[in-house]
Amino acid sequence: MTYPDASTLVQSFQTTHWIIHLQTDGLTHSDSLLQPPFRGNCLNWVLGHIVAGRNTVLKLLGEPPIWSAEDIARYESESEPITRDEQALPLDGLLRDLDQSQQQITAALERMIPEALAAVVPFRGGEQPVAQAVAGQHWHETYHTGQLELLRQLAGTDDAVI
User: Fold this and answer.
1) What are the structural domains of the chain?
2) Burial class (CB in 10 A: 0-12, 13-18, 19+), 26
3) How far apart are CA 81 and CA 74, in angstroms?
4) Is the N or C terminus of the chain more exposed, i.e. has fewer CB atoms within 10 Å?
């Protein structure tokens, strides 16, 4: 089976990084904490969840994570919703961490040789080639990136950025 090569993965992460910045442009930290009127979570949690997922990508690529286990815990799947300011990391900090993760992911992938991407590693209770695991993590990121469009609207932007 063939998995994405490094340049395809770089482009994929660059695309979601760009969309995330478009969807968060002009929003305040308070905007990021607005809860949807349906079962879901605020933009702050979704963005933090994306950054937490990128920590997993960094580990898969042999890079140091940018977040501590404590930071990851507040944004991991099935964590409690963020409903108060003191529970959340600041929006501008989340965006800086997203940018840092983008730089590290890009640099790591640009250094990767095809054999390293094909190496089989333990992942989610099984084993997968690194490229497959990273591509799966990116798919998960795209799912949450799409949620940002609706969460942006909670702040009253009433716009379409893409």
Assistant:
1) 6-153 (1.20.120.450)
2) exposed
3) 9
4) N
Nearest-angstrom CA–CA distance, 40 and 35 = 8
Q: What is the pLDDT of residues 82-140, one digit of tens each?
A: 988 999 999 999 999 999 999 999 999 999 999 999 999 988 889 999 999 999 999 99
Three-state SS for 123? strand
Helices (DSSP H) in the chain: which residue ranges?
6-24, 29-32, 43-60, 69-75, 91-111, 114-118, 130-153
Residue 121: φ, ψ to 5°: -130, 155
pTM above 0.85, yes or no: yes
- Which residues, in sequence order, are CB contacts of 75 under 8 Å at separation 6+? 45, 48, 49, 51, 52
pLDDT digits (tens, 9 = 90+) for 10-51: 999 999 999 999 999 999 999 999 999 888 899 999 999 999
Q: Which residue has the tokens 């969309």?
A: 19
- pLDDT tens-digit map of 50-60: 999 999 999 99
